[in-house]
Amino acid sequence: MYNVELSDEAQFDLDEAYIWYELQQVGLGKRLVLLVRDYMQILKATPEQFPTIHKNKRAVYIKDFPYQIIFTIYADVVVVFSIFHTKRNPKVWKKRT
Predict the structure, then answer these.
(1) What's the CATH number where 84 sits?
(2) What is the Cα–Cα distance from 71 to 25, expressed in whole angstroms?
């Protein structure tokens, strides 16, 4: 079992997405947050199942939303450093590593 840590930047990404989706439709932001929590549980158990996308960075696509959770595995810790909108320039998350 891994520990999962959400970086400040990733938390900001999630907060920003939550607000945007709630403004579009009440409850939609909450749905995104709950899905992210579900994926965090999967990352605790089996983060290796997700593909490497850049050097030692891995990603999982969030079902029904245009977002990826981008993370790195360090020993027994999974560090999530971006919850990234897939239409944005990937240089944004690459600068965080």
Answers:
(1) 3.30.2310.20
(2) 28
Beta carbons of 53 and 70 less than 8 angstroms apart: yes
DSSP 36-64: HHHHHHHHHH-GGGSPEEETTEEEEEPTT
Q: How far, in Å, are 23, 25, 30, 33, 40 from residue 96 at the CA level?
A: 28, 30, 26, 22, 19
Domain that holds residue 50: 3-94
Tens of pLDDT, residues 9-62: 999 999 999 999 999 999 999 999 999 999 999 999 999 999 999 889 999 999
pTM for the full predicted model: 0.88
Cα separation, 60 vs 67, in Å, equals 9
Contacts 24+ apart (CB under 8 A), 17-23: 17/65, 17/67, 17/83, 17/85
Domain count, the chain: 1
In the three-class reduction of DSSP (H, G, I as helix; E, B as strand; rest coil), residue 7 is classed as: coil
